[in-house]
Amino acid sequence: MRSAVSCSRHRSVGSSDPSRQHAVAIDVVLLGTGNPLPDPNRAGSATLVRAGGKTFLFDAGRGAVLRLAAAGAVPAMLDAVFLTHLHSDHICDLNDVVTTRWVMAPVPMPLPIIGPPGTAAVVAGMEQMLAPDVSYRMAHHDDLNEPPQLDVREVTTGVVFEQADVRVLAAGTDHKPVEPTIGFRIEHEDKAVVLGGDGVPCAGLDELCRGADVYVQTVLREDLVRLVPSARFNDILDYHSSVEQAAQTAAEAGVKVLVLTHQIPAPAPGTDDEWSAVASAHFAGEIVFGHDLTTVTA
Fold first, then answer.
1. Most exposed among 23, 123, 175, 214, judged by the fewest C-beta atoms under 10 Å?
2. Are the C-beta atoms of 183 and 84 separated by less than 8 Å?
3. Which one is catalytic: 27, 59, 89, 198?
4. C-alpha–C-alpha distance, residues 297 and 191, integer Å
């Protein structure tokens, strides 16, 4: 398995070695692996993907811009932002992505924001929230002549981005009552990476995962969730994949590497292997337990 896909806990991305950059098809950096509950060691949901000279951000949860910087990137480098769904823990740092790109870019740089129906309304509300700050900065800086330029595209299925030999496909996922929600498959050369987002197994996710090199999935441990005496917390059991379900999806689709992220509840220190063992009972491929800035290379 290591010959096909490599991973590391805190490896630097964007190596200056030209031979390595030519050989690498897709780099995936887990910027944030946390869940909605604050954790000092885990930022909110966000994933950086580099493929064929393109740099993408998938979701923009709490601390996304700080983790981008830690991964050697800034918002001005992004070719597009993709949103799997509109839960607050996946979008609450989108305003920082937009503002930081705007103030750092030497020239106007329209930012494609690609997400499910409802994305345009959310972005419009964000722009309204940012309006005072935008007006202050434009009044102060002579070279800021216009507000941030955003190219919002609402999508559901099919090819949603294609430039040169990099293609991004979307398909519907099941995170009801949150709907619509989408997962993404990034293809470059002969490699494919799938970001499933939140949700339970479904036909759309199966289609995205078929034959993928890497499959990144939000997961929970039902046994641990049920130990929490809170009805609200236990409600999450019906709309997130369990570790077992994610492993079964990966096995059925012929995935090479399963990456566990956005773990619920927050894993106790030293329990990575315990979570991975649950998955390995259903999936014979490589399993990566995600921490912030874990990198997986396809």
1. 23
2. yes
3. 89
4. 10
User: pLDDT by residue (tens digit) across 197-239?
Assistant: 999 999 999 999 999 999 999 999 999 999 999 999 999 999 9
Give the amino acid at 204: G
Structure tokens at 51: 């493929």
Q: State the burial class of residue 255 (Cβ atoms within 10 Å of its Cβ: 0-12, 13-18, 19+).
A: buried
Contact 156, 117 (CB under 8 A): yes
Catalytic residue check, 89: yes
* Position 189, amino acid: E
**CATH dotted code for 6-13+24-297:** 3.60.15.10
DSSP per-residue codes, 229-256: --HHHHGGGGTS-BHHHHHHHHHHHT-S
Look at residues 235, 241, 231 and name the one whose alpha carbon lies nearest to residue 263: 241
Positive or negative torsion for Cα 143, 119, 73, 31: positive
Is residue 114 within 8 Å of residue 59, measured between CB atoms? no
Which of 68, 66, 47, 67 minimizes the C-alpha distance to 58?
47
**How many residues are there in the chain?**
298
CA–CA distance, 220 with 263 (Å, rounded to integer): 5
Give the pLDDT confidence score for residue 24 in this predicted structure.
Answer: 67
Positions of the chain with pLDDT lower than 50, given as ranges: 1-6, 10-22
